User: What shape does this take?
Amino acid sequence: MSDEVGLEKRALRAELRERRRIATATGRAEANAAITANLVALATRLKARSLSAYLSIPDEPGTRDFLAWACAEGITVLLPVSRADGLLDWALYDGKEEFEDELGMPAPTTEPLSPNALDDVDVIIVPAASVDRTGMRMGWGRGYFDKTLGSMQQCPPVYAVIFDDELVDAVPSERHDQRVDGVVTPSGIVAF
Assistant: This one.
């Protein structure tokens, strides 16, 4: 990573973390309800019978209500489980128990599947710090999702979930950073 791009990314991530931290509970609840509705609309439009996503943590745009809906609809849901080697395994999610993985992120308690389990899903939902209008995604700096997406030979549509003000004109990027096919925000679904 060039020092200049690294500094730009760190500064932008710090700003975004602070914005998320100071959001009001009411504003966050309204945004999460709209995100859930838009994720349901996306999954329905894509006729998804299987998907991968992630369990959101409190400051992130919410995915938990959407995942509960997907499980209730009989959609196969795979969630990431972080590994010490910087890769992700995937595990089936049933909407019930969870634990904290290597990174302290919420993950399902079911038996981990291989990284290749992701090959057969209909859509991939990923977290992001910010996405620009060309689809360049900036994550939170560990590269787990970039490695996963970059290693896939045939990748289904990939959508990042962000708040409205996190869709920007440009994000700092490097060669290993991966683009997404669209974003889901409280205001709607944007495809690139």
Remarks:
- The radius of gyration is 16 Å.
- The chain has four helices and twelve strands.
- The first strand starts at residue 50 and ends at 52.
- The longest helix spans residues 25-45.
